[in-house]
């Protein structure tokens, strides 16, 4: 189907508010245990009615993302940062060709973003990167647990996503940030099938931590090397999982 004629999904106002709040939690704007702005404040900022905000909060309470505490000192609090991607966007219906295209775009964008981030990143950017890594470390299963649960896997994927968004913010280019957000929405479903053991999760965090150190050092060769490792880990895992070679690894048959 041509992209101009893809199915249209129209969200209700309360669904859109819930989506935006969930996205703010998922990307780390609101942290676990933090209190959301008042219903009136959210309504004014998003230019919707207070009942709309109330219904949006109800949706996230039902999803176990938010908790509402009544009485003095009460309010709406973040009860989980493990927000499923489906609450933010419709999960892409991936076909083999889509996987190839998403991987190619990732290989095009990530090296450039990492190199530019090393030039423009400020203390606040590195703080975001460290916070993403810390979130991932805190979410790891105990050492004696070798097989990872879906929640552990989601936590590490969210940590990696927050790290890559911090890189994109560090470029000081709003369009790059939007492109990175869109790319991560496509890449995330692939990663769920490639992380199985605690060792897989630890390696994922070690790679982003090494990338941060290379960016702090401002060494183009180190940045290129760790970026290639991050790209290769996912690409190799996908080939093992699907049993098919990615398009970039295929070679035409030799003539004669």
From TrEMBL:
Domain of life: Bacteria
GO molecular function: DNA binding; DNA-binding transcription factor activity
Domain annotation HTH gntR-type: ranges: 11-81
InterPro entries (alphabetical): GntR_C, TF_FadR/GntR_C, Tscrpt_reg_HTH_GntR, WH-like_DNA-bd_sf, WH_DNA-bd_sf
Keywords from the UniProt entry: DNA-binding, Transcription, Transcription regulation
Designated name of the protein: Uxu operon transcriptional regulator
Annotated organism of origin: Neorhizobium galegae bv. orientalis str. HAMBI 540
């Amino acid at each position: 189907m041509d992209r101009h004629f893809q199915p249209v999904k129209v969200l209700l106002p309360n669904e859109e508010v819930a989506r935006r709040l969930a996205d703010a939690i998922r990307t780390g704007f609101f942290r676990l245990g933090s209190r959301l702005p008042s219903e009136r404040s959210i309504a004014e900022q998003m230019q919707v009615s207070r009942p709309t905000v109330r219904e949006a909060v109800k949706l996230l309470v039902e999803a176990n993302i938010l908790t509402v505490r009544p009485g003095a000192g009460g309010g709406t609090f973040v009860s989980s940062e493990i927000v499923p991607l489906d609450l933010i966007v419709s999960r892409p219906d991936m076909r083999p060709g889509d996987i190839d295209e998403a991987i190619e775009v990732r290989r095009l964008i990530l090296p450039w973003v990492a190199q530019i981030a090393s030039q423009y990143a400020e203390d606040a950017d590195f703080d975001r990167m460290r916070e993403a890594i810390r979130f991932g470390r805190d979410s790891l299963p105990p050492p004696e647990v070798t097989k990872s649960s879906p929640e552990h896997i989601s936590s590490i994927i969210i940590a990696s996503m927050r790290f890559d968004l911090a890189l994109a913010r560090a470029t000081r280019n709003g369009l790059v940030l939007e492109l990175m957000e869109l790319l991560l929405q496509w890449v995330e479903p692939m990663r769920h099938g490639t992380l199985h053991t605690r060792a897989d999760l630890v390696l994922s965090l070690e790679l982003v931590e090494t990338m941060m150190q290379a960016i702090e050092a401002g060494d183009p060769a180190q940045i290129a090397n760790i970026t290639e490792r991050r790209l290769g880990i996912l690409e190799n895992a996908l080939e093992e999982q699907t049993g098919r070679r990615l398009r970039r690894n295929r070679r035409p048959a030799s003539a004669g």
